[in-house]
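Example 177.
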Amino acid sequence: MPHPIRLYGDPILRGHAREVEHFDEDLRAFAEEMVTSMREGAGIGLAAPQVGRSIRLIVVEADAVGEDEEEPRILVNPEVVALSKERSLFEEGCLSIPGVRAEVERPDAITVRFRTLDGKGAEERADGLYARVLQHEIDHLNGRLFVDHLGLAERNLLQKKLREIRERAADASPASS
Ligand code: NI
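Predicted structure in complex with nickel (II) ion:
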């Protein structure tokens, strides 16, 4: 794997990622590596801090975007500009929190504004699984994890698993970049 996935407990996952300013070859290469890491982890989305770089870049697997999609979606500096009032529960997991899954309530549809890899501005409305994954990944850029959305009782049930992952993170984490 080009970049090991940072685990729950690693401080980089709690930081506020910085805006991307340079849309250059380095950014494109890094985005490609993120897609590889996402696929090797069998994830459907990944945020840059999860592979050790605290920048506002996310990737979403094609299958999660829509049935006709063939290429993964890459969004730079994504920003949620509208949310639906309708909300629903859906089970989520995260490559940084292996073995933990829980139902999270989120808006069903969102509008997101972002830049493409070559720096062009874009806006997109998303619903279904795509909207779900976008919200999960954008949360990562703000230091937020899906377990933060759970109620106290439910989080308590996960405490032991989360502690185990945190201990693994402490053993495995390279120096944060
Ligand atoms: Ni995640």
